[in-house]
User: Which sequence fits this backbone?
């Protein structure tokens, strides 16, 4: 995936054969019902994404989220985009290329020298980046719904939520074989666990001062959204 371009140049108006429109819309309803919870999980997922050192550098250099105020503006804008995606008609979504760029810019992943694996000759924005960012948008909710206050949720609703993000990932140019939300709910949960165990946790053992700075900016800028009144609590949760 890391050697494949992030945009597979697929026609934006092409609907995949596997898409279940009813399940996609059910996923949207789930996302809107728990929109605040999803927003918090998205912010917390960024702590994981920040652990990919070379993916953090563009965020620092862009100077769009390196202070609490800038982080607030950036991620409030991102949350608004997500809400638009959760209310749009799949067959009438405009500006696919713009959405793809917004999605990739939100929380890019590592480009090289990523712990614990070594990668080289990768594309600037690759399918691995897109798939990993897709994880940040849905992974924690699928794996730990009760920890985020979503109790008694059915597997059907979680499966529909994954189908929603599979469809959005398709629109954003992710190839089917690299789509994080492909397969059954059980397979997606296992994929999420593997991503955290084999990529995120090793990365978090070697975090940098830049990671801490960006994480604190994220917390202080979005404390009103996250409802955590202490950075250490936010981090340990």
Assistant:
């Amino acid at each position: 995936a890391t050697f494949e371009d992030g945009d597979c140049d697929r026609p934006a108006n092409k609907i995949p054969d596997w898409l279940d429109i009813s399940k996609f819309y059910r996923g949207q309803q789930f996302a809107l019902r728990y929109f605040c919870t999803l927003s918090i999980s998205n912010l917390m997922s960024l702590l994981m994404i920040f652990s990919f050192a070379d993916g953090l550098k563009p965020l620092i250099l862009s100077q769009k989220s390196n202070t609490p105020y800038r982080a607030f503006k950036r991620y409030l804008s991102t949350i608004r985009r997500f809400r638009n995606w959760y209310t749009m008609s799949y067959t009438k979504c405009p500006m696919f290329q713009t959405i793809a760029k917004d999605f990739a810019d939100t929380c890019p992943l590592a480009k090289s020298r990523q712990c614990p694996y070594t990668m080289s000759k990768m594309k600037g924005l690759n399918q691995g980046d897109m798939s990993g960012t897709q994880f940040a948008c849905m992974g924690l909710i699928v794996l730990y719904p009760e920890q985020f206050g979503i109790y008694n949720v059915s597997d059907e609703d979680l499966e529909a939520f994954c189908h929603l993000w599979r469809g959005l990932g398709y629109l954003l140019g992710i190839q089917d074989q690299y789509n994080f939300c492909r397969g059954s709910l059980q397979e997606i949960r296992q994929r999420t666990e593997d991503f955290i165990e084999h990529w995120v946790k090793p990365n978090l053992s070697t975090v940098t001062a830049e990671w801490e700075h960006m994480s604190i900016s994220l917390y202080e800028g979005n404390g009103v959204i996250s409802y955590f009144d202490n950075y250490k609590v936010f981090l340990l949760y």
